[in-house]
Amino acid sequence: MFKKERSVPAELVILRILAHRMKLSEKEKQQLFNKEKGYEGELKFDNLIRELESLVLNDLLLEVGDTLFQIDTLIIFHGRIYLIDVKTYEGEYCYEDGIFKTVTGSEKRILCFN
Question: Does 30 score more than 70 pLDDT?
Fold first, then answer.
């Protein structure tokens, strides 16, 4: 059950508006593309977990001390809390020993906790 639905990130909203009103630089176009892909990936993840019998909170902005941080998705499921940071990478990957590797051998490190 989604208690907090995902909203379009403010930066993405701004970039979309600017793209309609002006010619974006190549850097800004890439930034817009990356934000769109990231948001699309988060929506796909939401669809994957929609049927779970769990409590789901999206887009949490929290503050501890003087530090603000964002959690893409927090899931409470069977007495456990899962913090999910959704990443959208393109290409072919292999998963070995907690590391995603591209076909060319470069690594994308992730942390998994049990």
Answer: yes
